[in-house]
Amino acid sequence: MSQGNYSNLPTGWRTVPLKHAVQINPEVLPDSTPPETVLSYVDIAALENGVAELAPTEVNFESAPSRARRVLRSGDTILSTVRTYLKAVASFPAVNTNLIASTGFAVLRPNGQLSPRFAYWAALAEPFIENVVANSDGVSYPAINPTLLGTLPLAVPPPNDQHRIANFLDDKTARIDALIAEKEGLIGKLLEYLYSHASALMTQGASAGVKLQKTSFPELGSIPTHWEVKRLKFLGEVRSGVAKGKDIGEKSTVALPYLRVANVQDGYVDLTEVHSIEVAEAEAQRYLLRVGDVLMNEGGDNDKLGRGTVWQGQIHPCIHQNHVFAVRLNDLDLAEWVARFTSTDAARSYFFLRSKQSTNLASINQSNVRELPVPMPPAAERCALLKQVRSATSRVQELVQHAQEHIERLREYRSSLISAAVTGELALDDRKTKGEQRLPS
Q1: What is the spatial distance between Cα 351 and Cα 82, in angstroms, rounded to a whole number?
Q2: Strand pairing partners for 328?
């Protein structure tokens, strides 16, 4: 068993098994709880990747999931014992009545040896959380049982050091988190600018003084007078894909890779995970993708709805799911124009207004795609506009990548700062330790 990285601790610090420093799962909601009792339920989905912004679900005990059993109190920390690689940890400085966590969490309640805030930072630190992951069983769904969790070592500083470390980390991480939020906001503004700029170019052209005419399509608005508008069905064939689970009887089959909604992104195809499916060999040809097909999503969240990208033939042969449309254009030179148009404000509005909405998902049908109104500039102007859209996209993507890299460095710094603080690598007072930075008084 891995013992974590707690070597060379400062004088006065000690290492103890977690179960000696906290109570693990000290309270369970009894089955005798009145059915009408309202619970604030924290499930695993509410906390991923160490994000502590929880949104509990209000539910009656009678209809609550059977996993809604861990009672939370002020000062508790929760740590996910399933999918431990997500490093899901959160603290609760103050708790309202009937806050309940899933049994997929371990509730850590300090028993007097640890201050509540230090307990949270210690559980979140890499030396401890990596030890949790290393001692988890399972590949796709790794988990650790509470008994084994309780044996893992934890560094325990003197009480005064715990408070100073917790205060230091509260302050420093808040500043880092503010910088991360600022960078994320910048990325959002950059993408908003790109969509707005591309939308304007692809619906009104690049000339500021061009004369516009109103169209009969509310989402499209006005376009230059020398442009046309054509329904997508007149530009090519909208092809449906193969339905997963379709009964193919006794027919001879062939296994082929196929693209799902998850693979078709806004402007690119994500081939990180491509599944295969058995289809009737005689029917495979009708679903095969060709280079230049424009892939469009039938559904997903509103950010995916109708989004298109040009298939470049990265996998061959390859077919597509029935939830992904393939638009086979009569003129391949139109592929990029059509694909990029699906991301404009006009196309987004068109699909949203015609979509079938459910809780968190939306969907469109083949008829909606066929009737999409596409603005059509003359060929030379279209090529010039696409060049401008590509240029703007490249500039924005470069800035977004720079911001994302900065965010990643900030997150790495945040993680290393927490680990260094709770393991004594940052100096306290005048004691010499491995770190050069000193905690503030």
Answers
A1: 38
A2: 237
Residue 355 domain boundaries: 210-376
Q: Are 199 and 99 in a shared domain?
A: no
Q: What are phi and psi of 253, to 5 degrees?
A: -120, 165
DSSP structural state of residue 322: T
Using left for φ > 0, alpha for ψ between -120 and 50, and beta otherwise, residue 407 falls in: alpha
413, containing H or E segment:
helix 379-422
Residues pairing with 137 in the sheet: 143
Task: Identify the domain boundary among 335, 361, 376.
Answer: 376
- Predicted pLDDT at 420: 93
Q: What angle do CA 193, 196, 201 make, to 5 degrees?
A: 120
> pTM of the full predicted structure?
0.80
**Helices in 225-376 by DSSP H: which ranges?**
284-287, 335-341, 345-354, 366-370
Are residues 337 and 237 located together in one domain of the fold? yes
Average pLDDT rounded to a whole number, residues 104-114: 93
Residue 285's pLDDT is 86
CA dihedral 377, 380, 382, 383 (to 10 degrees): 170
* Cα 354 off chain centre by: 26
Residue 176 belongs to what H/E stretch?
Answer: helix 159-204
Query: What average pLDDT does this structure show over 316-327?
Result: 91
Complete edge-to-edge strand list for the sheet that includes strand 362-363: 299-300, 362-363, 356-357
For residues 310 and 294, give the distance between their C-alpha atoms in angstroms, rounded to a whole number: 5
Per the prediction, the chain carries an average pLDDT of 88
Residue 303 pLDDT exceeds 50:
yes
